[in-house]
TrEMBL record:
It comes from the Bacteria. SMART domains: HATPase_c (SM00387). InterPro entries: HATPase_C_sf (IPR036890), HATPase_dom (IPR003594), His_kinase_dom (IPR005467), sCache_3 (IPR033463), Sensor-like_sf (IPR029151), Sig_transdc_His_kin-like_C (IPR004358). It comes from Micromonospora chersina. It catalyses: ATP + protein L-histidine = ADP + protein N-phospho-L-histidine. GO terms for cellular component: plasma membrane. Its main location: membrane. This is histidine kinase. Pfam families: HATPase_c, sCache_3_2.
Amino acid sequence: MARRQWSIAGQLFALQAVVVTLLVLAGAAGAVWLARSDSRQAAKDEVLAVAQAVAGSPNVRAALTAADPSATLQPYAEATRVATGTDFVVVMAPDRTRYSHPSPDLLGQPFIGDIGPALSGEPFTVTNVGTLGESVRAVVPVYDDEHRIIGLVSVGITTRAIDRKLLAQVPVLLGAAAPALALAATGSWLLSRRLRRQTHGLGPGEMTRMYEYYDAVLHSVREGLLVLTRDRRVALVNDEGRRLLGLADDAAVTDRPVGGIDLPPAVSELLGSGRDAHDEPVLAGDRVLVANQRTTRFEGAPLGTVLTLRDQTELRNLASELDSVRALTEALQAQTHESANRLHTVLTLVELGRTDEAVRLATRDLALAQQLTDRVVGAVTEPALAALLLGKSAQAGERGVDLVIEPDCRLDDSPLPTTDLLTVVGNLVDNALEAVAGAPPPRRVRVFVGAIDDELVVRVRDSGPGLDPDRVADAFRRGWSTKSAGRGLGLALVGQVVRRHGGAAEVTRTDDGETLFTVRLPVPGAAR
């Protein structure tokens, strides 16, 4: 098996640990360097002060003019050296001859090092290599009463002694760096732990592949997807979602409030409510969509909302046509049963010798059926619409409703796509049949389909209870229905066709109290 890559959290922790360690080490090194620099400067200040104090001593001035300066200066210098903690205190003549030194063997020998500035009357400090090794030293002139230079004083501390003092401070510096390093490591570990929990322990390669796969899948599926954040801003819309919602491919919608995007009203209402929805039909332009919406959560906390959309426009149209065919089939089955009963009656009358009554009974029903067929087929040459009206007539007869095709109904050729024509006529007739189903007799529905003044006009009137004038504006809105269990899609589909073709729809009340639905769709005059 291939070696598993480090997770992002593990890599981040390792990187932070290295960076923090280097920073702490660099800080400690910087602190040591600053301490060393401060120690050197403090040593310079110390030896200069001691040298100036020795040079200003009356005993030193007096000893320099004595016959044997070393007899007085040597014990004085050593006592001063021990008292001040310096490494040497040397009193010399202007010609470098030593009168004092920690090593008595070197008395009387010349002083090693620079003394030029002191001979010019300027005290100075310098780092030189002498008989005791490298040292930080100060050289100060000694004046007599007439302000003449009669000697020099040099006080020094070896760099080894300075470094020993500095090394004594290293444990303190390390003691301060160790808690800082531990605190930084603990913070990095806590951060990596949180990141590991949020990334589920995935490595960068795995997350990259996951993003590429998920992005490809989300944008290639034939289902619209819209994701909102918890503050109702758009996080993602895939390609199918843009198509179904009518959004341009280059429209900038990501990270925008959902209320600031031009969405279909039904979709905006569903997204704005934030409620869960399961297979809920919504209208988006001229499409019928099935929406599913739910709130996503992680560890109990809401993350946002996911809305999925499926296009069922064609399926709805097919289902509508299938319902019409099914209703026609059921009506034909009922008519077949009724015809069988009548045929049995006719045969019985013939057997009883009452042939005249048998002929009248048979020809009466045949004439009524033929009259309806002739009227529909003669007025409507569109075969699908003619079949629909015949089916609705049979369906109305089964419900005890008188479906009347207006005498002036005439449509030689459909100026609209057949599916749109069937959607308008079929849903208006179904709505009328539902309206009169619970009304007292006589229950009647009248249908007119024809071309008038370059318009296709569909009028359906019924003797039902009618609509409340305040609800007329809602009649063609999705979800509105006079039935408590209705889904309210029939008239909404009619409204879709009307809007798509730039037509108009209205609901009025006739003088005799009937409800009249009128749909007008503009068509070219040559199409009539």
